[in-house]
From TrEMBL:
Domain Helicase C-terminal: 230-381
InterPro entries: DEAD/DEAH_box_helicase_dom, DEAD/DEAH_RhlB, DEAD_box_RNA_helicases, Helicase_ATP-bd, Helicase_C-like, P-loop_NTPase, RNA-helicase_DEAD-box_CS, RNA_helicase_DEAD_Q_motif
Extent of the signal sequence: none
Protein origin, superkingdom: Archaea
Protein name, as recorded: RNA helicase
EC class of the enzyme, as a word: hydrolase
The DEAD-box RNA helicase Q domain, residue ranges: 1-29
Motif Q motif per record, residues: 1-29
Single GO MF descriptor: RNA helicase activity
Species of origin: Thermococcus kodakarensis (strain ATCC BAA-918 / JCM 12380 / KOD1)
Database matches in PROSITE patterns: DEAD_ATP_HELICASE, HELICASE_ATP_BIND_1, HELICASE_CTER, Q_MOTIF
Family listed: Belongs to the DEAD box helicase family.
Keywords: ATP-binding, Helicase, Hydrolase, Nucleotide-binding
SUPFAM superfamilies: P-loop containing nucleoside triphosphate hydrolases
């Protein structure tokens, strides 16, 4: 089936073909006809990198009345980076149509955003906090909104945006279509859908494969002080040219690791929440242009990064939960391309990692780079586990000394 057969306008079909796409993805094939022909709300679940933005973006663009310069669609995203990505994608899909798409997010001066909104915008893409700020200031009028979209709804709820989302929802007209898209569908998302959506059509694509099937997954078990040497070995492998993201848990770790990599001769840069928005955008743009080959990032900074050519994702530290693992791994293997994901685990973390991968519904093989763990290291680790178990059960109390009787 082609995009033209889905019922899209000639302008949308031409824009899609200009981007080099001829066959719609599964989520696009299911959602686009529903949005074009029905009036129902939609809940869509599909794996990361499956083309969700075009799935809701193309029908919305076809529904925009260019002659009315007011906000007709509002798209909420969890992060600034994703807001920018969605905005760029919609602009590339509008073709020659005079449809104005604008993004609003924190970390940027609010003055230019106010002036842009006053000039008349058809589609606003933004983060909940900044959108609500504009509503409260009276600089964003949503009376004409016909489409209300939550993109990566699970991430927004994880980040604590539910109250903001509900406040924004109340500022929109009662009669509108609500669209909710997510890679995972936890109970919080389902409850939000039940509260604000009217008998939605539920579209589930690849529910049992939340991580792209094109991603080869491995784990490396190694003592912490060996991680860096093993990482440089992976980066230096000439058989697989590395272009990817190295995930760390903390901002400090991204800075330290990127400096060590640059000192070792690699083109690496850090991306974390401590950086100003202009600095983050410049860093990402250098990475997207391949001037930087390695992005060392935290999860928050890397959300919404959409670069189809990413070859590798490395978890330099073990993910905290299955959702975080899915999000990280989903940065590679996008749009049918091959990818590889490698996770470093320390001795003692294997049981936890197996639980994470089981919940994520994936199988991860042990890498040939895994090293034998020294016996004394394992013995020390076991001793620490026993001491931790003892403290958890008995607290800091020491065993009572038996009195000697005379």
């Amino acid at each position: 089936m082609s995009f033209r057969e889905l019922g899209l306008s000639s302008a949308s079909v031409e824009a899609v073909e200009r981007k080099g796409f001829s066959i719609p993805t599964d989520i696009q094939r299911e959602v686009i006809p529903l949005l074009l022909s029905a009036e129902s709300d939609i809940v869509g679940q599909s794996k990361t990198g499956s083309g969700k933005t075009a799935a809701f973006g193309l029908p919305i663009l076809d529904s925009i009345d260019e002659s009315i310069r007011e906000v007709q669609a509002l798209i909420l995203t969890p992060t600034r980076e994703l807001a920018i990505q969605v905005t760029d994608e919609l602009r590339s899909l509008r073709g020659k149509r005079r449809i104005y798409v604008y993004s609003v997010y924190g970390g940027q001066p609010i003055g230019p955003q106010i002036r842009a909104l006053e000039g008349g915008v058809h589609i606003v893409v933004g983060t909940p906090g900044r959108v609500l700020d504009h509503i409260n200031r009276g600089t964003l009028n949503l009376d004409g909104v016909r489409f209300f979209v939550l993109d990566e709804a699970d991430r927004m709820l994880d980040m604590g945006f539910q109250e903001d989302i509900e406040a924004i929802f109340r500022a929109t007209p009662k009669e509108k279509r609500v669209l909710m898209f997510s890679a995972t569908m936890p109970m919080d998302v389902l409850l939000l859908a039940k509260k604000y959506m009217r008998n939605p059509e539920v579209v589930i694509v690849s529910r049992d494969e939340l991580v792209p099937g094109e991603v080869e997954q491995e784990y490396i078990e190694a003592v912490p002080h060996r991680r860096f040497d093993l990482l440089t070995k992976i980066l230096s492998d000439e058989s697989n040219e590395f272009y990817g993201i190295v995930f760390c848990q903390t901002k400090a770790e991204t800075r330290e690791l990127s400096m060590r990599l640059r000192a070792a001769g690699f083109r690496a840069e850090a991306l974390n929440g401590d950086m100003s928005q202009p600095a983050r955008e410049k860093t990402f743009n250098r990475f997207k242009a391949r001037k930087t080959k390695i992005l060392v990032a935290t999860d928050v900074a890397a959300r919404g990064l959409d670069v189809p050519e990413i070859t590798h994702v490395i978890n330099y530290s073990i993910p905290m939960n299955p959702e975080q693992y899915i999000h990280r791994i989903g940065r590679t293997g996008r749009m049918g391309k091959k990818g590889k994901a490698i996770t470093f685990i320390a001795p003692g973390e294997l049981r936890r990692f197996r639980y994470i991968t089981k919940q994520a519904g994936v199988e991860v093989k042990k890498s040939e780079l895994s090293e034998g763990i020294p016996k004394e290291y394992r013995e020390r680790l076991r001793q620490e586990e026993l001491e931790g178990e003892y403290r958890g059960r008995w607290g800091s109390m020491k065993p009572r000394q038996r009195r000697r009787r005379y």
